[in-house]
Design goal:
Blueprint lengths: L32 H20 L8 E5 L5 H9 L4 E6 L2 H10 L5 E3 L12 E7 L8 H11 E10 L3 H8 L6 E2 L4 E2 L5 H10 L3 E7 L9 H17 L6 E7 L9
Parallel strand pairs: 1-2, 1-4, 2-3, 4-5
Antiparallel strand pairs: 5-9, 6-7, 8-9
Length: 255
């Protein structure tokens, strides 16, 4: 099948059921401690945020949008083994990796700005580090809200003074050359305004998670100490934000 972008006229079922199951101990997502320690942080923060909101994804249907090769699905399954995951991505190569690495879950080729699902098809929609790749991040966000019955969960770059300073120093990218996109960072105010405009509840947490993979034990110890100190002293300036938006109706008076 050729890679394609589905337009609004392309809302139809194009599921591909993968029949092969991969035993959990054969997943190809685990790496070294130096890599996984920092990669785990956003998902631990996500779990803490959902617990704060008394949200358990076990038994829920969850669309993993822009799923890539399945790393996010892997972490979601580790935390919520009984969650019913569905995958969607525009990239055929990513789908092939998902097919070889992940459990047999339904998957579909779909543009995140024109998701090939009917309204309220899933309990929740989830996306990580992908909205900022889109030319229209807000449109992608509202598409997730459209197909989700209860709400959406996202992990994205945080817009902070630190990220802007790092950008000026050349330590943080304003544009991603490999993907050809501007890096849209979500500030707390952005999320609050979008939720107020639609009368939706939200919660969020901001934090640091180092991107660099340490090459030595000493470097790993230094990075982990610096990361921990930054999260203790000024987490709002972190490079990540995890947010939960719930589709609960409110009036302007309630807000």
């Amino acid at each position: 099948m050729k890679e394609k972008c589905l337009s609004k006229s392309g809302y139809h079922n194009v599921y591909h059921k993968y029949n092969k199951y991969t035993p959990e101990n054969k997943f190809k997502y685990e790496g070294s401690l130096y890599r996984d320690y920092f990669r785990d942080i956003p998902f631990l923060k996500l779990k803490s945020l959902l617990e704060r909101g008394k949200l358990d994804l076990n038994g829920k249907t969850v669309l993993v949008a822009s799923s890539g090769s399945g790393i996010d699905g892997y972490y979601l399954k580790k935390m919520y083994s009984r969650a019913k995951l569905f995958f969607a991505d525009i990239n055929l190569a990513g789908m092939e990796k998902l097919r070889s690495n992940f459990l047999a879950e339904p998957a579909v080729l779909s543009d995140n700005c024109f998701l090939a699902f009917k309204d309220s098809s899933f309990d929740y929609a989830y996306i990580a580090a992908s909205l900022h790749h889109l030319k229209e991040p807000a449109k992608g966000l509202y598409e997730l809200l459209r197909v989700a019955k209860e709400g959406i969960i996202a992990i994205e770059p945080n817009d902070s003074w630190f990220s802007r300073i790092f950008g000026c120093l050349g330590l943080a990218h304003e544009y991603e050359v490999d993907h050809g996109n501007y890096v849209y960072r979500f500030g707390k105010r952005d999320i609050v305004k979008m939720c107020k405009a639609s009368f939706l509840n939200h919660d969020l947490v901001r934090f640091f998670a180092v991107h660099r993979i340490a090459k030595t034990k000493i470097e790993f110890m230094i990075l982990s100490l610096l990361n921990g100190a930054a999260n203790l002293l000024f987490p709002s300036q972190g490079n990540y934000v995890v947010f939960l938006i719930r589709k609960e109706s409110h009036s302007a008076r309630d807000l």
